[in-house]
């Protein structure tokens, strides 16, 4: 199996897990909020841990940077949305 396919699978899993974890951390009343946090955290950390076995160091660092960029971008969007809602 080619390395790029494996990288795409781990990147997709990491993206999906991070979004699930962030969705579980929102302040709104979410159905089974703890479940989303747990599932998102397990998927994200599991895909990063497994990717360490299958990917080279450059792809692994890119995966870690992807997680932090998703978290920071979604936090910035949430802060902007909340401040605009308070102003109106």
Structure, described:
With 88 residues, this protein is mostly helical. The chain is built from three helices and no strands. The chain has helices at 3-24, 33-54, 57-87. The longest helix has 31 residues, at 57-87. The chain is globular, with a radius of gyration of 15 Å. The relative contact order is 0.16. The mean pLDDT is 69.
Distance between the termini: 53 Å
Low-confidence stretches: none
Structural classification: mainly alpha
- What count of domains describes the coordinates? 1
Helix content: over 70%
The total strand number stands at 0
Oligomer: single chain
Order of helices and strands: HHH
- General shape: globular
Residue-averaged pLDDT, rounded?
Answer: 69
Rg calculated over all Cα atoms: 15 Å
- Estimate what percentage of residues fall within beta strands: under 5%
Counting H and I runs of at least 4 residues, what is the number of helices?
3
Largest sheet: none
Describe what is shown at a glance.
By secondary structure, this protein is mainly α. It has helices at 3-24, 33-54, 57-87. It has one domain.
Brief descriptors of the model:
0% strand, mainly alpha
Present the secondary structure layout.
Blueprint: H1 3-24, H2 33-54, H3 57-87
């Amino acid at each position: 199996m080619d390395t790029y396919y494996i990288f795409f699978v781990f990147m997709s899993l990491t993206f999906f897990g991070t979004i699930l974890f962030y969705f579980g951390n929102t302040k709104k009343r979410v159905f089974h909020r703890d479940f989303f946090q747990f599932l998102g955290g397990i998927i994200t950390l599991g895909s990063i841990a497994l990717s360490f076995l299958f990917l080279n160091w450059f792809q692994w660092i890119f995966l870690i940077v992807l997680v932090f960029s998703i978290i920071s971008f979604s936090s910035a969007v949430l802060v902007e949305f909340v401040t605009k809602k308070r102003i109106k």
